Amino acid sequence: MKKILYIFFLILINSSAFSHIEHYKNIKEINFDIYRNNKLIGYHNYDFIRENDELIVKSKIFFEIKKLGVVLYKYRAEGIETYRNNKFISFSSSTKQNKKDKFCKIFMNDNKYFIEGSSYKGEAPEDFIIGTWWNHSIVNKKSQISAISGRIIKQNVSFLGKEKINIGGKDINTLHFNFSSSDKKLSKDKKLNTDVWYEENTLNWVKASFNKQGYWEYRLKDIKFYK
Questions:
Q1: d(Cα 193, Cα 183) in Å, to the nearest integer?
Q2: How many structural domains is the chain composed of?
Q3: How far is CA 150 from each of CA 91, 107, 116, 141, 214, rounded to the nearest angstrom?
Q4: Within 10 A of 55 (CB to CB), how many other CB atoms are there?
Q5: Distances (CA, A) of 174 to 70, 131, 143, 196, 197
Q6: 77: left (phi over 0), alpha (psi -120 to 50) or beta
Q7: What is the reported pLDDT for 17?
Q8: How far apart are CA 55 and CA 91, in angstroms?
Q9: Which end of the chain has a smaller Cβ tally under 10 Å, C or N?
Q10: Are strands 143-145 and 152-167 parallel, antiparallel or unpaired?
Q11: pLDDT number for residue 189
Q12: Whole-angstrom distance, CA of residue 62 vs CA of residue 129
């Protein structure tokens, strides 16, 4: 049954109604709270800006981990995605991970995409998407590009079923997916293993979770729409 539902979902996102960025035309902001071991530690916010035929998606992330009032870990990142006529054009980000700087740039040259990142420099794979999660088309991609460093992450996507989850006191009907690395030889700290929930009716991202030196959750705080 899950396999049938997953095939249906893939057909849905490839239909004319869901196969492009126009699906997000009325969204102004998507704001998430970040939790680690069920403690609020930061935020991840998106702003959707439309200028003529362009969509610019700006993201900001900040969190810090403290113990006895002492900051043990601080993370800050900003990114900009640009789309023109619903087609991806470019991406750039800068990240401060404690005292370590990371970056990622994706751009087009001669109808090919290239990556310049702190972890990888070279041509992008044919079927990719930026790993920023808000775009539900990620479930149908073979690779995602790390928005932090430009690393190419080849992925397997498993549909885990429909679930009703509670976010901020509100019950939401969702589609639950797991994203894992195709390359089993990767070290544990490099492997992708993230659960992501999309609202069933709107396909908007509402939650993500993973284990990495603690249990992390991204929980939807609110979505704001253009009037």
A1: 12
A2: 1
A3: 10, 12, 7, 16, 24
A4: 22
A5: 38, 20, 23, 10, 6
A6: beta
A7: 32
A8: 12
A9: C
A10: antiparallel
A11: 77
A12: 23
CATH code for the domain in which residue 97 is found: 2.50.20
What integer pLDDT is reported at residue 210 of this predicted model?
96
Distance CA 161, CA 195 (A): 12
How confident is the model over 172-217, as pLDDT tens digits? 999 999 999 998 888 877 889 999 999 999 999 999 999 999 999 9
Q: Tell me which residues of the chain have a pLDDT lower than 70.
A: 1-20
Residue 20, pLDDT score: 58
**Domain containing residue 9:** 2-225
Provide the sign of the torsion angle of the four alpha carbons 132, 111, 10, 48, taken in this order.
Answer: positive
Pairing type for strands 143-145 and 128-130 reads parallel
Q: Give backbone dihedrals phi and psi of 41, rounded to 5 degrees, phi first.
A: -125, -10
How much is the pTM?
0.89
Whole-number pLDDT of residue 19: 41
CA distance 110 to 63: 38
